[in-house]
Structure formats: C-alpha cells, structure tokens
C-alpha cells in the first residue's frame, strides 16, 4: 500500500509535494490507539450519510450505497479485526479506505462537510457512553458482592476503627456496607460523564461549522445525543467529558484502593477478621505457608495509574489554544487505559469480596473492653452528667483498669463509684457487644435495625 502524500493513502496530501519524512511517519500514526473506535466511527459515519441525504447533498441511492458499504466494513472488522500491516494513519482513514473498497467512488463523498476534528470528537463521545455502561455494570457487581458479605455479618460485632485504633463496636455488616455508598456516588459521577458526552459535535467541521444545510438536531437524535454543541470552535476541542470520565475513574480507583487496604489488613494474621478464598489469593515461591492477598494489593497498586491518567489529561489540556490541536491525539490512550484498568480490577475485586468470609471467632477475640468506654460516658450523660465531665471520668476509669491489668467489665461497682457517684449497680449491664451496637439506632447507625434499613436501601439502589 502507498504511503502519506499519495492519493490512495492520505486524507490530506494534495497540498504537499513528496512524502512524509521517515522520522515523522511513526509519530503521526495513531491507528494502534484509536483503532478501537471503529464501531463508533462507523456509527457516526452512518448518521452523517443519512444527514447528507436529508440535506440533499447525497441522493437516496448514494446514501443506501454508503450504508451498505459501511455495513460491509463493519462485518470485515468484526470478523477479522484491523488487518495486520496496514499503513493507514488512523481509524478514520482506515474506515474510509475500506469503504472505498466496498462501495466504490461514492465513498469519497462521505466526508463532505465533515472534518476529522468533529469526527473524532463524536467517536469519543459515543465511546464514553458505551464505556460508562460497562463500568456501571461492573461497579454494580462489586456493590452486590459487598451486600452479600454484609448479609453474613449482620449478627457479627467487630471493632470499629479510627486512626487504626479500636474505637467503638460496630456490626460487621456496617463495615461491609461502608464502601457501597462511595460506589453509588461513583455511578452518579459516571452518569454525569455520560451526560456531558451526550452533546453532539458532528456538524462543526474543522473549525467554522458545516457549509451544507445539515439538520444537526435530527442528526443528534439519530445518533442518540440529546443536544448539539453551540460553538464549533469549542465543540472540536472540548474534552471536558473525558476529564469527567477520568476524574470519576480516578475516584473509583481511590475507593477500590481503600476497600483493598481493608482486605489486606483484615485478612492478615494480626487481624484475621476476613478470609479470602484460595481463588483470589496467591502463595510464595519461598514460604510454603503464605496466603497473600494479591487481588487487594494489585487493586491498590492500579490506583496510581488511574490518578496519573487524570493528571495527564488535565496537563495535556491546560495549555492548548482555542480550536483543535494535534496534542489531543494523546487523550485517547489515557481514557482507554482508565477504562481498561477498571474493567480489569472491578471483576477481580468483586469476585474476591463475593467469596470472602468473616471469621466471627477471631473477631470476638479481638474485641477489647475499652470499646465500651463511650457507652460508659453515655451512661453518665443519661444521668445528667455533662458530657465533658463524663468524658473525663471515663478516662480515669480506663486508666484505673489499665493499671490493674483488667478489663472495664472486671471493675467493681465500688471502683466505678470511686471515680463518679452517679454509677449504679446496672453499670455492668452495659458490657454486652450487641447491646452496645444496638444503642446506636439512628439512621446510618450500627444498630441491627438501622443496618437492616441500610441493607434494604443499598439493595434498592443497586437494583436487587
């Protein structure tokens, strides 16, 4: 096949004399990256052919020939992929060349009034909508896996941590549900990115708009967009919707990393609250006893590239003058990598969570009596003691128990009264883990009733 500068291979070579410099050729090529947009490119081209027909630029026969040719191109690419060794500059030139092979001379009319600038912007927006649908399903699967884990932990009380120090008793279900709500916010951010991508740039041309009477509103409806762009200069260079997607992707990564960190900690011998299944654990080449939580560690590690992709795109965009600039060729690899990474990580983490199991015996063994300290402070508040006074008194009680080397439940009523006279015989009724958790029955709390309400709300939000 001939190279750039020759009519059969280039979409722009007429103004140039001679071929492209050898050192420029590989820099100029993008098919290895944007080739995955072939479905979107064909979809946009079908819509554009119909729009040209409605505008009277093409005859019905020409539109039919182009649509049939595009169907044939789609069949070729679906069955065989992009052929090895092709020298087309990008996916747009490849599709046009294949269309010419299938439909003949009429294929050369398809690009009337259209630029690769508004073409690629349209392709990307179509791709974002598809990608968001895939990500939404994968996030939903992880959310449902967390629900399944939460259901196992409804009657398991575990330490709740702040600063990685035991704070108050909570139900294990409450811990398992905590990541569900960030994931639901992630789904909302993804939907916002898809909505931002739902504005059609096609018809903006290279910079100044289209000189033919294209009904852009009809074209938008045909391609599934809800509106058209208002300014052709902005339309061809707007990548805000990609920034929205990559921001959502980076934050998803952060949320997944936090889930992963919990799994690493809680599956360790020091905690042993959770056991990951063998299918999502690995061993050591040296130490036979090891069960490594690699699924969590790999998930945690992938977050760096997700954050990096967002930073890369924002850096790419920050210095561009108004209008299309070739720098934007770099946007696709960042977006593709973010989605590919998430679609690699999400199913693996969902599988790990779905097959994980709580270890109630190990959890109960780790419950420290000092977790009841806040309950003791609340006990005094219920008897009219100001909270700050109560807080100070319980601090002294904790110190007394530590000095004696006993648990809070092992101190006598006289010990408690020596610190504050408001303690009565019923103080020892506090020392029950379920009772402690159930005392926090407000919406969003860790009482069993509140957690059941939360489970129901999460099921509704996740659709089952």
UniProtKB/TrEMBL annotation:
GO molecular function, one term: argininosuccinate lyase activity
SUPFAM superfamilies: L-aspartase-like
InterPro entries to which the protein is assigned, alphabetical: Arg_succ_lyase_C, Argininosuccinate_lyase, Fumarase/histidase_N, Fumarate_lyase_CS, Fumarate_lyase_fam, Fumarate_lyase_N, L-Aspartase-like
UniProt catalytic activity: 2-(N(omega)-L-arginino)succinate = fumarate + L-arginine
Gene3D superfamilies: Fumarase/aspartase (C-terminal domain), Fumarase/aspartase (Central domain), Fumarase/aspartase (N-terminal domain)
Keyword annotations from UniProtKB, A to Z: Amino-acid biosynthesis, Arginine biosynthesis, Cytoplasm, Lyase
Any Pfam family hit: Lyase_1
Chief place of localization: cytoplasm
UniProt KW Lyase keyword: yes
HAMAP family (UniProt xref): Arg_succ_lyase (MF_00006)
Membership in a protein family: Belongs to the lyase 1 family. Argininosuccinate lyase subfamily.
PANTHER family assigned: ARGININOSUCCINATE LYASE
Record's protein name: Argininosuccinate lyase
Gene: argH
């Amino acid at each position: 096949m001939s190279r750039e500068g020759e009519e059969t291979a280039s979409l722009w070579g007429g103004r140039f004399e001679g071929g492209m410099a050898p050192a420029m050729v590989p820099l100029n090529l993008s098919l290895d990256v944007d080739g995955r947009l072939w479905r979107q490119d064909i979809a946009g081209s079908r819509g554009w052919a119909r729009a040209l027909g409605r505008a009277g630029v093409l005859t019905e026969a020409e539109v039919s020939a182009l649509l049939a040719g595009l169907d044939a191109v789609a069949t070729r690419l679906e069955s065989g992929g992009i052929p090895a060794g092709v020298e087309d500059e990008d996916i747009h030139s490849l599709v046009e060349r294949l269309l010419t092979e299938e439909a003949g001379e009429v294929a050369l009319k398809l690009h009337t009034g259209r630029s690769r600038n508004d073409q690629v912007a349209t392709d990307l927006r179509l791709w974002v909508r598809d990608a968001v649908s895939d990500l939404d399903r994968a996030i939903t699967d992880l959310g449902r896996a967390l629900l399944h884990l939460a259901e196992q932990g409804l009657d398991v009380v575990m330490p709740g941590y702040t600063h990685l120090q035991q704070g108050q008793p909570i139900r294990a279900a409450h811990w398992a549900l905590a990541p569900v709500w960030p994931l639901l916010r992630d789904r909302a951010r993804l939907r916002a990115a898809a909505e931002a991508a739902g504005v059609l740039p096609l018809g903006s041309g290279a910079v100044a708009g289209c000189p033919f009477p294209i009904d852009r509103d009809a074209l938008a409806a045909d391609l599934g967009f809800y509106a058209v762009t208002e300014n052709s200069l902005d339309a061809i260079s707007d990548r805000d919707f990609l920034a929205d997607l990559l921001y959502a992707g980076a934050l998803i990564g952060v949320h997944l990393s936090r889930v992963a960190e919990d799994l690493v900690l809680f599956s360790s011998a020091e905690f042993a609250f959770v056991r990951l299944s063998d299918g999502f654990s690995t061993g050591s080449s040296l130490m036979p006893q090891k069960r490594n939580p690699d699924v969590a560690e790999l998930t945690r590690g992938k977050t760096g590239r997700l954050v990096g992709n967002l930073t890369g795109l924002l850096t790419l965009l920050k210095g561009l003058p108004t209008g299309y600039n070739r720098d934007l060729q770099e946007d696709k690899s960042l977006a593709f990598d973010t989605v590919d990474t998430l679609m690699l990580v999400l199913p693996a983490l969902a599988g790990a969570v779905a097959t994980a199991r709580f270890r109630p015996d190990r959890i109960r063994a780790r419950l420290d009596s000092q977790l009841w300290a806040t309950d003791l402070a609340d006990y005094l508040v219920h008897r009219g003691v100001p909270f700050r006074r109560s807080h100070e008194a319980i601090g002294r009680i904790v110190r007394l128990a530590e000095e004696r080397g006993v648990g809070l439940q092992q101190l006598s009523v006289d010990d408690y009264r020596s610190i504050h006279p408001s303690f009565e015989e019923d103080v020892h009724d506090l020392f029950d883990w379920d009772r402690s958790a159930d005392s926090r029955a407000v919406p969003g709390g860790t009482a069993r009733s509140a957690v059941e309400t939360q489970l129901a709300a999460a099921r509704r939000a996740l659709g089952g």
